Amino acid sequence: MDSIRIQGRIALQGKVRIQGSKNAALPVLAATLLVGERSVIRNCPKIADVHSMVSLLKSLGCSVHWQEKGLVIDSSQVRKGEMPEEAVTGMRSSLCLLGALLGRCREVVMEHPGGCVIGKRPIDLHLSALRQMGVEFTEKNGKLMAKASRLHGARICLPFPSVGATENIVLAGVMADGDTVLEGAALEPEILTLCQYLCCCGAFIEGAGSCRLVIHGGRKLCRTDFTIPADRIVAGTYLFGCIGAGGCVLLEQAPGKEMAAVLQVAEQMGGHVYSSPEGIYVQAPVRPLPLRLVTAPYPGFPTDLQSVALAVETMGMGCSRIDEVIFENRFRILEDLEKMGAKVQQKNAHSVLIKGVEMLQGAHVQAKELRGGAALVVAGLMAEGETVVSGCPFIYRGYENICRDFRELGARVTSV
Q1: Exactly one of 116, 195, 201, 242 is catalytic; which is it?
Q2: Is 242 part of the annotated catalytic residue set?
Protein backbone atom coordinates (compact mmCIF):
# COMPACT_ATOMS: atom_id res chain seq x y z
CA MET A 1 0.00 0.00 0.00
CA ASP A 2 1.74 3.15 -1.21
CA SER A 3 -0.92 5.77 -0.37
CA ILE A 4 -3.28 6.81 2.42
CA ARG A 5 -6.67 8.38 1.57
CA ILE A 6 -8.26 10.67 4.18
CA GLN A 7 -11.67 12.32 4.37
CA GLY A 8 -11.09 15.20 6.76
CA ARG A 9 -13.06 17.36 9.18
CA ILE A 10 -14.22 14.53 11.47
CA ALA A 11 -13.61 15.11 15.17
CA LEU A 12 -11.81 12.20 16.83
CA GLN A 13 -13.51 10.30 19.63
CA GLY A 14 -12.82 7.13 21.62
CA LYS A 15 -9.63 5.34 22.59
CA VAL A 16 -6.65 3.69 20.90
CA ARG A 17 -3.85 1.55 22.27
CA ILE A 18 -0.32 2.87 21.68
CA GLN A 19 2.10 0.40 20.06
CA GLY A 20 5.53 -0.59 21.37
CA SER A 21 8.33 1.92 20.89
CA LYS A 22 10.33 1.82 17.66
CA ASN A 23 13.27 3.72 19.14
CA ALA A 24 13.40 1.42 22.16
CA ALA A 25 12.88 -1.84 20.28
CA LEU A 26 15.71 -1.46 17.74
CA PRO A 27 18.64 -1.12 20.20
CA VAL A 28 17.16 -3.85 22.42
CA LEU A 29 17.00 -6.17 19.40
CA ALA A 30 20.64 -5.30 18.66
CA ALA A 31 21.52 -6.09 22.27
CA THR A 32 20.17 -9.66 21.94
CA LEU A 33 23.35 -10.37 19.96
CA LEU A 34 25.33 -10.01 23.19
CA VAL A 35 23.28 -12.62 25.06
CA GLY A 36 24.18 -15.62 22.92
CA GLU A 37 21.02 -17.39 24.05
CA ARG A 38 17.27 -17.29 23.46
CA SER A 39 15.57 -13.97 24.27
CA VAL A 40 11.87 -13.07 24.29
CA ILE A 41 11.05 -9.45 23.46
CA ARG A 42 7.39 -8.60 24.08
CA ASN A 43 5.35 -5.68 22.69
CA CYS A 44 7.75 -5.29 19.79
CA PRO A 45 6.03 -3.16 17.11
CA LYS A 46 5.39 -4.82 13.76
CA ILE A 47 6.78 -1.98 11.69
CA ALA A 48 9.06 -1.85 8.66
CA ASP A 49 12.18 -0.90 10.62
CA VAL A 50 11.73 -3.83 13.02
CA HIS A 51 11.21 -6.20 10.07
CA SER A 52 14.45 -4.84 8.57
CA MET A 53 16.27 -5.39 11.86
CA VAL A 54 14.90 -8.94 12.03
CA SER A 55 16.26 -9.58 8.51
CA LEU A 56 19.64 -8.21 9.59
CA LEU A 57 19.74 -10.42 12.67
CA LYS A 58 18.87 -13.45 10.55
CA SER A 59 21.63 -12.59 8.08
CA LEU A 60 24.09 -12.59 10.98
CA GLY A 61 23.07 -16.10 12.06
CA CYS A 62 20.23 -15.48 14.53
CA SER A 63 17.08 -17.56 14.62
CA VAL A 64 14.14 -15.13 14.85
CA HIS A 65 10.43 -15.96 15.11
CA TRP A 66 7.28 -13.97 15.78
CA GLN A 67 5.12 -15.72 18.36
CA GLU A 68 1.97 -14.67 20.19
CA LYS A 69 4.02 -13.83 23.27
CA GLY A 70 6.47 -11.69 21.30
CA LEU A 71 9.61 -11.85 19.20
CA VAL A 72 11.82 -14.83 20.04
CA ILE A 73 15.50 -14.44 19.14
CA ASP A 74 18.24 -17.04 19.49
CA SER A 75 21.67 -15.51 18.84
CA SER A 76 23.75 -18.52 19.88
CA GLN A 77 24.94 -19.24 16.32
CA VAL A 78 26.22 -15.75 15.45
CA ARG A 79 29.79 -16.02 14.19
CA LYS A 80 30.28 -13.13 11.74
CA GLY A 81 29.98 -9.38 11.83
CA GLU A 82 29.29 -8.54 8.18
CA MET A 83 25.94 -6.89 7.42
CA PRO A 84 24.30 -6.98 3.98
CA GLU A 85 24.39 -3.70 2.08
CA GLU A 86 20.68 -3.43 1.27
CA ALA A 87 19.60 -3.62 4.92
CA VAL A 88 22.13 -1.13 6.27
CA THR A 89 21.76 1.60 3.65
CA GLY A 90 17.98 1.63 4.09
CA MET A 91 17.89 1.86 7.87
CA ARG A 92 20.05 4.16 9.95
CA SER A 93 19.13 2.29 13.12
CA SER A 94 21.33 -0.57 11.91
CA LEU A 95 24.19 1.58 13.20
CA CYS A 96 23.40 0.42 16.74
CA LEU A 97 24.50 -3.05 15.61
CA LEU A 98 28.04 -1.67 15.40
CA GLY A 99 28.58 -1.64 19.17
CA ALA A 100 26.74 -4.94 19.64
CA LEU A 101 28.70 -6.77 16.93
CA LEU A 102 32.00 -5.41 18.20
CA GLY A 103 31.06 -6.74 21.61
CA ARG A 104 30.12 -10.13 20.18
CA CYS A 105 32.45 -10.69 17.22
CA ARG A 106 35.18 -8.02 17.68
CA GLU A 107 34.93 -7.32 13.95
CA VAL A 108 32.34 -5.57 11.78
CA VAL A 109 31.97 -4.84 8.07
CA MET A 110 29.08 -2.56 7.05
CA GLU A 111 27.91 0.06 4.59
CA HIS A 112 27.42 3.59 5.80
CA PRO A 113 23.92 3.61 7.34
CA GLY A 114 20.90 5.22 5.66
CA GLY A 115 17.41 6.04 6.91
CA CYS A 116 15.37 9.21 6.45
CA VAL A 117 16.94 12.19 4.69
CA ILE A 118 16.45 14.75 7.48
CA GLY A 119 19.99 16.02 7.89
CA LYS A 120 23.66 15.12 7.77
CA ARG A 121 23.62 12.99 10.94
CA PRO A 122 27.37 12.25 10.89
CA ILE A 123 28.66 9.16 12.69
CA ASP A 124 31.92 10.78 13.88
CA LEU A 125 30.80 10.67 17.53
CA HIS A 126 30.26 6.90 17.30
CA LEU A 127 33.65 6.26 15.74
CA SER A 128 35.56 8.57 18.05
CA ALA A 129 34.06 6.98 21.18
CA LEU A 130 34.64 3.42 20.00
CA ARG A 131 38.25 4.24 19.05
CA GLN A 132 38.82 5.15 22.70
CA MET A 133 37.66 1.61 23.56
CA GLY A 134 40.27 -0.02 21.32
CA VAL A 135 38.43 -0.19 17.97
CA GLU A 136 40.32 0.44 14.73
CA PHE A 137 38.34 1.76 11.74
CA THR A 138 39.26 1.62 8.06
CA GLU A 139 37.32 2.16 4.83
CA LYS A 140 37.60 -0.10 1.82
CA ASN A 141 35.47 -0.13 -1.33
CA GLY A 142 32.98 2.21 0.34
CA LYS A 143 32.57 -0.07 3.35
CA LEU A 144 33.27 0.72 6.97
CA MET A 145 35.47 -1.91 8.61
CA ALA A 146 35.88 -2.05 12.39
CA LYS A 147 38.13 -4.35 14.37
CA ALA A 148 39.02 -4.68 18.04
CA SER A 149 41.39 -7.41 19.15
CA ARG A 150 40.46 -6.37 22.68
CA LEU A 151 37.68 -4.04 23.80
CA HIS A 152 38.59 -2.13 26.92
CA GLY A 153 36.85 0.37 29.14
CA ALA A 154 37.50 4.08 28.71
CA ARG A 155 36.50 7.49 29.99
CA ILE A 156 34.42 9.12 27.24
CA CYS A 157 32.88 12.57 27.11
CA LEU A 158 30.34 13.22 24.36
CA PRO A 159 30.30 16.84 23.09
CA PHE A 160 26.63 16.37 22.12
CA PRO A 161 24.12 13.96 23.72
CA SER A 162 23.84 11.67 20.69
CA VAL A 163 21.33 8.86 21.22
CA GLY A 164 23.01 6.54 18.73
CA ALA A 165 26.52 7.11 20.08
CA THR A 166 25.30 6.54 23.65
CA GLU A 167 23.69 3.25 22.58
CA ASN A 168 26.85 2.06 20.84
CA ILE A 169 29.04 2.92 23.83
CA VAL A 170 26.69 1.06 26.19
CA LEU A 171 26.50 -2.00 23.92
CA ALA A 172 30.27 -2.19 23.48
CA GLY A 173 30.92 -1.27 27.11
CA VAL A 174 29.04 -4.18 28.65
CA MET A 175 31.36 -6.58 26.80
CA ALA A 176 34.60 -4.62 27.29
CA ASP A 177 37.28 -5.36 29.86
CA GLY A 178 37.02 -2.96 32.78
CA ASP A 179 34.78 0.03 33.34
CA THR A 180 33.56 2.58 30.82
CA VAL A 181 32.59 5.99 32.20
CA LEU A 182 30.43 7.99 29.82
CA GLU A 183 29.86 11.69 30.46
CA GLY A 184 27.29 13.63 28.42
CA ALA A 185 25.13 10.60 27.67
CA ALA A 186 21.78 11.15 25.95
CA LEU A 187 18.84 11.24 28.36
CA GLU A 188 16.18 9.81 26.04
CA PRO A 189 13.95 7.19 27.72
CA GLU A 190 15.01 4.66 25.08
CA ILE A 191 18.55 4.71 26.56
CA LEU A 192 17.09 3.84 29.96
CA THR A 193 15.12 0.99 28.35
CA LEU A 194 18.30 -0.40 26.75
CA CYS A 195 20.13 -0.24 30.09
CA GLN A 196 17.20 -1.92 31.85
CA TYR A 197 17.21 -4.75 29.31
CA LEU A 198 20.94 -5.30 29.63
CA CYS A 199 20.74 -5.23 33.44
CA CYS A 200 17.94 -7.84 33.29
CA CYS A 201 20.43 -9.96 31.33
CA GLY A 202 23.11 -9.58 34.02
CA ALA A 203 24.96 -6.39 33.07
CA PHE A 204 25.90 -3.81 35.72
CA ILE A 205 25.26 -0.22 34.64
CA GLU A 206 25.20 2.65 37.10
CA GLY A 207 23.45 5.96 36.44
CA ALA A 208 20.90 4.68 33.92
CA GLY A 209 18.60 7.56 33.03
CA SER A 210 21.25 10.20 33.81
CA CYS A 211 23.91 11.96 31.74
CA ARG A 212 26.69 9.99 33.49
CA LEU A 213 26.81 6.25 32.95
CA VAL A 214 29.29 3.83 34.47
CA ILE A 215 29.28 0.54 32.55
CA HIS A 216 31.02 -2.29 34.35
CA GLY A 217 32.11 -4.55 31.51
CA GLY A 218 33.01 -8.20 31.16
CA ARG A 219 29.99 -9.80 32.84
CA LYS A 220 28.33 -12.81 31.24
CA LEU A 221 24.86 -12.03 29.95
CA CYS A 222 21.98 -14.50 30.08
CA ARG A 223 18.55 -14.91 28.54
CA THR A 224 15.60 -12.88 29.71
CA ASP A 225 11.98 -12.03 28.94
CA PHE A 226 11.56 -8.28 28.35
CA THR A 227 8.69 -5.96 27.41
CA ILE A 228 9.15 -2.90 25.17
CA PRO A 229 7.41 0.23 26.53
CA ALA A 230 4.83 2.25 24.57
CA ASP A 231 5.99 4.60 21.83
CA ARG A 232 5.99 8.23 23.02
CA ILE A 233 6.33 9.57 19.44
CA VAL A 234 3.32 7.62 18.17
CA ALA A 235 1.37 8.77 21.23
CA GLY A 236 2.39 12.37 20.51
CA THR A 237 1.34 12.04 16.87
CA TYR A 238 -2.16 10.89 17.85
CA LEU A 239 -2.38 13.52 20.61
CA PHE A 240 -1.63 16.34 18.15
CA GLY A 241 -3.92 14.67 15.62
CA CYS A 242 -6.76 15.13 18.09
CA ILE A 243 -5.83 18.76 18.82
CA GLY A 244 -5.81 19.50 15.08
CA ALA A 245 -8.92 17.55 14.05
CA GLY A 246 -10.91 18.20 17.24
CA GLY A 247 -12.54 15.83 19.66
CA CYS A 248 -11.63 13.95 22.83
CA VAL A 249 -9.58 10.73 22.99
CA LEU A 250 -7.83 8.36 25.37
CA LEU A 251 -4.36 7.20 24.31
CA GLU A 252 -4.15 3.88 26.14
CA GLN A 253 -0.78 3.04 27.74
CA ALA A 254 0.75 6.30 26.47
CA PRO A 255 3.85 7.04 28.60
CA GLY A 256 2.77 10.36 30.08
CA LYS A 257 5.77 10.57 32.40
CA GLU A 258 8.15 10.59 29.41
CA MET A 259 6.04 13.14 27.53
CA ALA A 260 6.09 16.13 29.88
CA ALA A 261 7.38 18.55 27.22
CA VAL A 262 4.83 17.27 24.68
CA LEU A 263 1.93 17.61 27.12
CA GLN A 264 3.09 21.13 27.98
CA VAL A 265 3.03 22.12 24.29
CA ALA A 266 -0.42 20.53 23.89
CA GLU A 267 -1.68 22.67 26.76
CA GLN A 268 -0.08 25.78 25.23
CA MET A 269 -2.08 24.99 22.08
CA GLY A 270 -5.24 25.11 24.18
CA GLY A 271 -5.70 21.37 24.64
CA HIS A 272 -6.83 19.87 27.94
CA VAL A 273 -4.61 16.92 28.77
CA TYR A 274 -4.55 14.56 31.72
CA SER A 275 -2.11 11.74 32.35
CA SER A 276 -3.18 8.70 34.39
CA PRO A 277 -2.17 5.02 34.78
CA GLU A 278 -4.57 4.26 31.91
CA GLY A 279 -2.76 6.59 29.52
CA ILE A 280 -3.33 10.16 28.35
CA TYR A 281 -6.68 11.89 27.92
CA VAL A 282 -6.77 14.82 25.51
CA GLN A 283 -9.60 17.21 24.67
CA ALA A 284 -9.05 19.52 21.71
CA PRO A 285 -9.63 23.29 21.67
CA VAL A 286 -11.94 24.91 19.11
CA ARG A 287 -8.78 26.02 17.27
CA PRO A 288 -5.15 25.67 18.34
CA LEU A 289 -3.60 28.69 20.06
CA PRO A 290 -0.42 30.18 18.55
CA LEU A 291 2.88 28.68 19.63
CA ARG A 292 6.58 29.46 20.00
CA LEU A 293 8.31 26.09 19.83
CA VAL A 294 11.98 25.08 19.95
CA THR A 295 13.04 21.44 19.63
CA ALA A 296 15.69 20.09 22.01
CA PRO A 297 17.25 16.83 23.15
CA TYR A 298 15.22 15.02 25.83
CA PRO A 299 13.69 16.15 28.14
CA GLY A 300 12.94 18.97 25.69
CA PHE A 301 10.38 18.85 22.88
CA PRO A 302 11.34 16.00 20.50
CA THR A 303 12.41 16.77 16.96
CA ASP A 304 10.39 13.72 15.86
CA LEU A 305 7.15 15.58 16.71
CA GLN A 306 8.09 18.97 15.29
CA SER A 307 6.48 18.27 11.88
CA VAL A 308 3.20 17.19 13.46
CA ALA A 309 3.07 20.27 15.70
CA LEU A 310 3.80 22.42 12.64
CA ALA A 311 0.93 20.83 10.71
CA VAL A 312 -1.49 21.49 13.57
CA GLU A 313 -0.46 25.15 13.86
CA THR A 314 -1.33 25.79 10.19
CA MET A 315 -4.92 26.10 11.48
CA GLY A 316 -3.94 27.98 14.63
CA MET A 317 -5.62 31.20 15.76
CA GLY A 318 -2.58 33.40 15.18
CA CYS A 319 1.07 33.44 14.17
CA SER A 320 3.44 30.71 15.38
CA ARG A 321 7.16 30.14 15.09
CA ILE A 322 8.98 26.82 15.19
CA ASP A 323 12.75 26.52 15.54
CA GLU A 324 14.35 23.17 14.68
CA VAL A 325 17.78 22.96 16.31
CA ILE A 326 18.48 19.21 16.03
CA PHE A 327 18.37 18.55 12.26
CA GLU A 328 18.78 20.97 9.37
CA ASN A 329 16.41 19.34 6.88
CA ARG A 330 13.22 18.80 8.85
CA PHE A 331 10.94 21.27 7.05
CA ARG A 332 10.39 19.15 3.96
CA ILE A 333 6.59 19.18 4.37
CA LEU A 334 6.20 22.94 3.83
CA GLU A 335 5.54 22.71 0.08
CA ASP A 336 2.84 20.08 0.62
CA LEU A 337 1.21 22.08 3.40
CA GLU A 338 1.12 25.09 1.08
CA LYS A 339 -0.71 22.92 -1.49
CA MET A 340 -3.36 22.48 1.20
CA GLY A 341 -3.67 26.23 1.74
CA ALA A 342 -1.29 26.69 4.66
CA LYS A 343 0.56 30.00 5.04
CA VAL A 344 4.12 29.09 6.04
CA GLN A 345 7.37 30.94 5.56
CA GLN A 346 10.80 29.40 6.09
CA LYS A 347 13.07 32.08 7.51
CA ASN A 348 16.24 29.98 7.36
CA ALA A 349 17.34 26.34 7.65
CA HIS A 350 16.17 26.21 11.26
CA SER A 351 13.10 28.48 11.57
CA VAL A 352 9.57 28.58 10.17
CA LEU A 353 6.82 31.19 10.65
CA ILE A 354 3.21 29.98 10.43
CA LYS A 355 0.15 32.19 9.98
CA GLY A 356 -2.87 30.15 10.93
CA VAL A 357 -5.73 29.81 8.43
CA GLU A 358 -9.35 28.91 9.15
CA MET A 359 -9.35 25.90 6.86
CA LEU A 360 -6.99 23.59 4.97
CA GLN A 361 -8.13 22.00 1.72
CA GLY A 362 -7.52 18.37 0.80
CA ALA A 363 -4.82 17.73 -1.81
CA HIS A 364 -2.48 15.09 -3.21
CA VAL A 365 0.71 15.28 -1.15
CA GLN A 366 3.80 13.11 -0.75
CA ALA A 367 5.62 11.80 2.31
CA LYS A 368 9.37 12.29 1.97
CA GLU A 369 10.40 10.96 5.39
CA LEU A 370 8.84 9.15 8.33
CA ARG A 371 7.66 11.88 10.72
CA GLY A 372 6.83 14.38 7.99
CA GLY A 373 4.64 11.73 6.39
CA ALA A 374 2.73 11.23 9.63
CA ALA A 375 2.31 15.01 9.85
CA LEU A 376 0.70 15.07 6.40
CA VAL A 377 -1.78 12.43 7.56
CA VAL A 378 -2.66 14.70 10.50
CA ALA A 379 -3.02 17.65 8.10
CA GLY A 380 -5.41 15.49 6.04
CA LEU A 381 -7.52 14.83 9.14
CA MET A 382 -7.83 18.60 9.63
CA ALA A 383 -8.55 19.50 5.99
CA GLU A 384 -11.83 19.95 4.13
CA GLY A 385 -12.42 17.24 1.53
CA GLU A 386 -10.11 14.43 0.49
CA THR A 387 -6.36 14.22 1.00
CA VAL A 388 -4.19 11.51 -0.54
CA VAL A 389 -0.75 10.98 0.99
CA SER A 390 1.63 9.00 -1.23
CA GLY A 391 5.08 7.69 -0.28
CA CYS A 392 3.62 5.88 2.71
CA PRO A 393 6.38 3.23 3.04
CA PHE A 394 8.22 6.00 4.91
CA ILE A 395 5.35 6.16 7.42
CA TYR A 396 5.21 2.39 7.84
CA ARG A 397 8.80 2.47 9.09
CA GLY A 398 7.52 3.80 12.41
CA TYR A 399 3.75 3.29 12.64
CA GLU A 400 2.33 -0.21 12.96
CA ASN A 401 -1.03 0.72 11.44
CA ILE A 402 -1.71 4.46 11.46
CA CYS A 403 -4.86 4.04 9.36
CA ARG A 404 -6.41 1.47 11.71
CA ASP A 405 -5.52 3.57 14.76
CA PHE A 406 -7.15 6.73 13.42
CA ARG A 407 -10.18 4.70 12.25
CA GLU A 408 -10.58 3.47 15.82
CA LEU A 409 -10.93 7.14 16.74
CA GLY A 410 -13.64 7.66 14.13
CA ALA A 411 -11.57 9.08 11.25
CA ARG A 412 -12.19 8.06 7.65
CA VAL A 413 -8.73 6.84 6.67
CA THR A 414 -7.82 3.97 4.33
CA SER A 415 -4.70 2.51 2.73
CA VAL A 416 -4.84 2.37 -1.07
Answers
A1: 116
A2: no
